[in-house]
Automatic annotation (TrEMBL):
Keyword ATP-binding: yes
PANTHER family in alphabetical order: IRON(3+)-HYDROXAMATE IMPORT ATP-BINDING PROTEIN FHUC
UniProt-recorded name of the protein: ABC transporter ATP-binding protein
Superkingdom: Bacteria
Matches recorded under InterPro entries: AAA+_ATPase, ABC_transporter-like_ATP-bd, ABC_transporter-like_CS, P-loop_NTPase, Siderophore_ABC-ATPase
SUPFAM superfamilies recorded: P-loop containing nucleoside triphosphate hydrolases (SSF52540)
Keywords: ATP-binding, Cell membrane, Ion transport, Iron, Iron transport, Membrane, Nucleotide-binding, Transport
GO annotation terms (biological process): iron ion transport
A cellular-component GO term for this protein: plasma membrane
Domain ABC transporter stretches: 11-247
Protein's organism: Chelativorans petroleitrophicus
UniProt topology in membrane: Peripheral membrane protein
Database matches in CDD domains: ABC_Iron-Siderophores_B12_Hemin
Length: 275
């Protein structure tokens, strides 16, 4: 039975808890992810950001609580059904270096395939659209091992786009990229969000990048949401000190008119000074 509830959010998390053995990684989290917007999860290492992202995609079983997709509990969906609705690119994905770019992107069509079903015109169109949207069409015959870090990350994003999901979850998509490729990658994600209306959920460590690209910014600490809202409301010096343990000054970015964090020093030093 399709038990849908009224909701303006594409994805809603309700009192969700996720555990690893005796350790609670996500603790009674509730969050409404706005449809067609970019939501960024930020917080210190080990605060539960990646676990929450994977739980949204149902890759971690919930100890309690639930995740709703357009009002329907994701626990009621079959694996291929949820894979057609929510795409996830995890941290540091890997594939054989001798695999061709187009072969990897084609893997994004797996949720749409059935046994003995031939490759369809819809599949081919989805592949071409994904490669065109990420600007990698000219790389289709290249081997993955011959690509730069920025090129390879675009290929992985193209694979997720080929799934044609309304919700895209990206876990540290700019990890290991230099500054130029970080901006290229996040500009691409932002453009796909604006032009195609995709709901995007990002995990980012860089607080200034989070404030620059987020429509909704979510601060997490110790498995819980501390606060969620607009970047200009969350980028407060006292809140950053409380969540990240860093003293800072927050100013306005004169180019993008977004808050900019200038770190100063740890508010509670973790290491003894060298004598």
């Amino acid at each position: 039975m399709d038990k849908r509830v009224a909701s303006e959010s594409g994805v809603s998390v309700e009192t969700l808890s996720v555990s690893y053995g005796a350790r609670t990684a996500v603790d009674a989290v509730s969050l409404a992810i706005p449809k067609g917007k970019i939501t960024v999860l930020a917080g210190p290492n080990g605060c539960g950001k990646s676990t929450l992202l994977r739980a949204i995609r149902r890759l971690h079983p919930a100890k309690s609580g639930r995740v709703l997709l357009d009002g329907l509990e994701t626990g009621r969906l079959r694996e291929k059904e949820i894979a057609r609705e929510i795409g996830l690119l995890g941290q540091s994905p890997s594939a054989p270096e001798d695999m061709r770019v187009e072969e990897l992107v084609r893997l994004g069509r797996f949720p749409h395939q059935a046994m003995m079903q031939p490759w369809s015109a819809e599949d081919a169109t989805a592949i071409e659209d994904a490669m065109f949207g990420t600007g990698i069409g000219h790389l289709r015959d290249r081997r993955l091992g011959s690509l730069s870090g920025g090129q390879l990350q675009r290929v992985w994003i193209a694979m997720v786009l080929a799934q044609e999901t309304d919700v895209i979850c990206l876990d540290e998509p700019v990890n290991h990229l230099d500054m130029a490729h970080q901006i290229d990658c996040l500009d691409l994600v932002s453009r796909l969000n604006r032009e195609r209306g995709r709901t995007v959920v990002l995990v980012l460590h860089d607080l200034n990048l989070a404030a620059r690209y987020a429509d909704l910014l979510v601060f997490m600490k110790e498995g819980r949401i501390v606060e969620a809202g607009l970047p200009r409301d969350l980028m407060r010096e006292d809140l950053i000190a409380s969540v990240f343990g860093i003293q800072c000054r927050v100013i306005e970015d004169p180019v993008h008119e977004r808050p900019l964090c200038i770190p100063m020093r740890n508010s509670s030093p973790r290491f003894r000074p060298v004598e």
